[in-house]
Amino acid sequence: MTHEEDEEFHAFVAARWGRLLRTAFLLTGHQQDAEDLVQSTLTRAFDRWGRVRRADDPEAYVWRMLLNAATDRLRAPRRLRERLTTHLPERGTADHSEELAVRDVLLEALALLSSRQRAVVVLRYLEGRTETEAALLLGTTVGTVRSHTARALATLRGNPALRDLTDQRGVAQ
Amino acid sequence: MTNEDRVWSEEDVVASLSVQLDRAAGTLVVPRPPVAAMIRDGRARRRRRRAATALGAAVVVAGTVPFAWGAFHSGTERSLQPPASTVGEFSGSARVVQPYEAFDIGAGLQMTLKEDGYLALSGGELPRSAAEDTGPSFSRPEEPTFTYPGFPLPHGRLVLAGMLPGEEMPTRVEAEWGGTTHAARIVTLPGEPGWYAIHADLGSGDAGQPVTITVFGAEGEVLDRLHSAPAAG
To answer: Which listed residue, of A13, A60, A101, B219, carries a Cα 20 to 30 Å from B105's Cα?
Structure first.
């Protein structure tokens, strides 16, 4: 790997880090898990940087790596883990309590979805991806994306906490 | 009107989701990307991957060497017996050889190392020109000694010969094959080339059995463990 390629990777990460992290956060439900997921994905991307660069769409290639890793992670048995961290966990304050309440309700609702349903919801409604784009990133068909979407929305509609949240805040927030 | 009375349509859910997902994602504390750590760890992954790939190639090549060597030498019984020195206490320090110096690795084979990380195998003294012609890291079976295919050996013989990257020189390398653990010999060039070669005559066995290489550090810790399924010779 040359210095030039190091810089190329650096620029790639700098331009996408925040967006990847936001998506990973909603896929995993935890800040530290999201950081782990994105960091491990990008580390593997650097390992295979030649292949990433040669891909028709390098960004889509890395997104697929992230989504596959997230799916694998959600399928793995849950286990308690200790972590070393350079920053303390965030603490809710009065100013942010409402946002954190929204977040908690939403994350709990998303946790009831399958890993694929969750990925579809995040791609479609956070990322604003089309069904075709979501299908390409997930390596599946548009029909399957529609099916996952329909089932996910049905589950979310039946979630009273999420519904209460929407009613309290108004749909057009 | 209660929540139960009000119809919460799919459109309501979709409209709400985009807003709420964005709000939830907005609570995330975005730290600076640890790019240096990712590059460092990515390089380490690449080194391990290439070492595993190269090791696989080495085992395949070495696995075919005694096959052809036996053919060249009419498959005598002597050629099929592993030298007693191949299973033993190769621990402590690496053997340091000079570039282009051919040394025995068992089964009548010789190994030669070059400064730029090339390794060559031969059935005899390896000419300097031949060493220069060998491919990266591992010998190609281009020498006449190694290019007599099709002679059926009664036993699959396997000689491990590979090269591993590593700034830290291991104190011990073990190769487990078919339930038997063999001590592999560590060889390197003077100075700190950043890599080292290993070799071990694993004797005869089922060529389809995987080989597990375990590399130990100064404190007895495992520095690396590699697996390879050798091809039949």
So the answer is: B219
Residue linked to tokens 């504390």: B29
Range of A166's domain? 94-173
Interface check A125 vs B, CB under 8 A = yes
Q: What's the rounded Cα separation, in Å, for the pair B117 and B138?
A: 9
Of B220, A140, B132, B214, nearest to B228 by C-alpha is: B214
Interface check A37 vs B, CB under 8 A: no
Among residues B167, B155, B172, the alpha carbon closest in space to that of B88 is found at B172
**What string of H, E and C letters represents the secondary structure of chain B?**
CCCCCCCCCHHHHHHHHHHHHHHHHHCCCCCCCCHHHHHHHHHHHHHHHHHHHHHHHHHHHHHHHHHHHHHHCCCCHHHHCCCHHHCCCCCCCCEECCCCCCEEEECCEEEEECCCCCEEEECCCCCHHHHHHCCCCCCCCCCHHHCCCCCCCCCEEEEEEEEEECCCCCCEEEEEECCEEEEEEEEECCCCCCEEEEEEEEEEECCCCCEEEEEECCCCCEEEEEEECCCCC
Q: Lowest-confidence range among B85-94, B154-163, B173-182? A: B85-94
pLDDT tens track for B112-141:
777 666 666 665 433 343 333 333 333 322
A159 touches chain B (CB under 8 A): no
Token representation of residue B56: 């696989």
Query: Which of A40, A56, A83 is a domain's end point?
Result: A83
Interface predicted TM-score of the whole assembly (ipTM), two decimals: 0.80
From the list A39, A102, A162, the residue facing B23 with the nearest CB is A102
Give the CATH number for residue A137.
1.10.10.10
Does the beta-carbon distance from B28 to A39 stay under 8 Å? no
On whether both A98 and A78 belong to a single domain, the answer is no
Question: Does residue A73 sit within a domain?
Answer: yes
Chain B partners of A47 at a C-beta cutoff of 8 Å? 42-43, 45-46, 49
Q: Is the pTM of the predicted complex or chain greater than 0.90? A: no
Domain count, chain A: 2
Q: Calculate the alpha carbon distances from A171 to A98, B11, B15, B45 in Å.
A: 16, 10, 7, 47
